[in-house]
Amino acid sequence: MCRQQNTRDTTQSGQTKAVSPFRLRLIARELHQGAVIAYPTEAVYGLGCDPLNRAAVERLLAIKRRPLHKGLILIAASVDQLRPFARFDGDCLDRVEASWPGPHTWLLPAVTDLPYWINGGRDSVACRVTAHPVAAALCRAFGGPIVSTSANQAGQAPARNALQARLRCRAVDRVVQGATGGLRAPTPIRDAVSGEMLRGD
């Protein structure tokens, strides 16, 4: 990882280009080394890092000015990537899997040894198997879920493109280019056990 370089997968014009397999491997390696990245998701640009790297998570939270106790969302390319973090028990499994991959975030029971900096010490963790092609490709290249929280500081509107992400979160190590998925609002969040809506459609 090289914070000074602050390399970005963006063109000067801001036009979308494909993220090549080589670049995906490079980004994955940087994530494993503690990088914080900005990348497109279903509705907005997100900030991401290795959720098991406490220093990376703390730096991401500092960039965003988000308190640790609020917890974070994890996105993944498959349910299997989330099993080390969340429990898929009972009836909630069918309900959750029926909505994935897709723009649906679920609050799931956390595994007993989940690091507190991921979920703020709660007994649950917010997860999504994303269908966004760039976000899913990042998770596959990384080999597991990554953190997903909107690319903005407290009080700012979420970034909707790479340029806005770069301007609002200047301390990130890399801005990954790509179009967002077109949702007008962040993905809804539901409790997988109760079905309660925690963040609306």
The main sheet comes to:
10 strands, mixed
Radius of gyration: 16 Å
Number of strands: 10
Average predicted local confidence, pLDDT: 90
Strand order of the largest sheet: 1-8-2-3-7-4-6-5-9-10
Please tally the helical runs, counting DSSP H or I stretches of 4 or more residues.
7
What sort of overall outline do the alpha carbons produce when their principal axes are compared? globular
CATH superfamily: DHBP synthase
Q: Termini distance? A: 37 Å
Which fold name corresponds to the CATH topology?
A: DHBP synthase
Topology at a glance:
Elements: E1 8-9, H1 21-32, E2 37-40, E3 45-48, H2 54-64, E4 73-76, H3 79-82, H4 92-97, E5 105-109, H5 116-119, E6 124-129, H6 133-142, E7 146-150, H7 162-168, E8 174-176, E9 189-191, E10 197-199
Parallel strand pairs: 1-8, 2-8, 4-6, 5-9
Antiparallel strand pairs: 2-3, 3-7, 4-7, 5-6, 9-10
Helix pairs in contact: 1-6
